[in-house]
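Sequence, structure tokens reproduced for absentees:
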Amino acid sequence: MPQPTIPPRIQRLALVNVCLGQFMSAVDSRSVNVALPTLSVHFSASMAVVQWIPLAYQLTIVGLVLSMARLGDMVGRKQIYTLGFVLLGFGALFCGFSAELWQIIFFRVIEAVGGALVLANGRTIASALYAEEGRGRALGMMSMSFHLGYIVGPSVGGFLVDTVGWRWIFFMNLPVAAAAGYMAWKILPETVTEKRDYSIDPIGMMTLLVTVVALIIGLQATARSGLGPLPVAAFFASALSFALLLHFERREPVPLLEFSLFKVRLLTAGILTHFFVTLSHASTFFLLPFYLQGILNYSPTQVGVTIIFFSLVIVILAPIGGWLGDQLGSRMLCTAGSALTVLSMFGFAQLDAGAGSMAVMVPLMTLGLGWALYQAPNLSGMFNAAGPRYLGAVSGLSLTAANIGNAMGVAIGSVLFLRWLNYYGIAGSAVPPYPQWMENSAVFINAFQNSWLVIAALAAVAILTSAMRGADKRGKGVNREME
């Protein structure tokens, strides 16, 4: 059944609402990252423990986002998307009232369920509404909104931590969730025109989640004590779960992971590139607040104001990147964006105890330029390659790759930093709180610099995968590739 004609006014309002969902997701993510050093001191918790605050969110989304995209295709995206805002608000409220660190982690899982509903269906709604023309521009607007949230999250979050306390980084999400949920229910059109008869594949969902969680646990154990029996067991469990995932998905009539999509070279290359780019971003934004507060003695407000320069570039240039993607295709822009990501990692690797504000801002702005050129063209190219029937599946795959990359990035950032500290003589269990790092600054600076050099090498893989994607293919998508 073709997509019904939607009045331009409703189309624009729907895009505003989807952009609001992207904005809220970014505010929540970046404000929490800025507060991690403060939370580590408040709860007397190590870096290896506080990393579970962002990890709980990311891992929950990894486990749910594919199924929630499918659920939207089954029962209608509008109601599933609206419910997401309700759960986001509920989780944020109780995170703010939490008295123990484990409670924050638990309610971050509730937030993440809502986030999975919003993220899995929001981009699909926008892509369906702009299927005929302007998809690249719409995705660029969504990217701009997301990074407006990246500006508001660190700056306002850092200010709140310094003035009224860390709890308000969660409370500030409530009015946005309420407004976005009400607006979604009132104005969003239903974009599912052909409801497909399939299940949400709980076996696929669980084996995917166990694969990633076991891998993260193995990385965490490696960060604390090196490669011993526990990490080896965790890595084995991850590999076994992945093998089971492949086994069950091949037997599932309508699998959670549609392997036919991976026959499209551009789509496969786009997903791999997305994974490595988001991994490098997540590692950087996990490590950077600790560097700024522990080495440069920045306050949370200063950390937030510094980080927003990454997003300022994106807010200005993301719509241009989307427009260029519509005109030029994705390969050249995504490859250039990946190369700028690597260049920015080398910039971070030069930071030391005497780094001025410009030394921090330049690699941040380079990273932002890379993302502005990369993100919207990559998404638009994947959607065009797969075709309209697979919008939900592609959105889910893209979000899963991004969130696995985000979770892996946080874990790898922690592993690299703590293992480099161990190499220089500081065991993971003996790492002092960040206010004491300047007493032995050379060790911590070397650990940061070497970590970013390794992250640069991982980001370089994205250059190769993007360059191998081939020319954009529009129109018939998966069916043409399989003929």
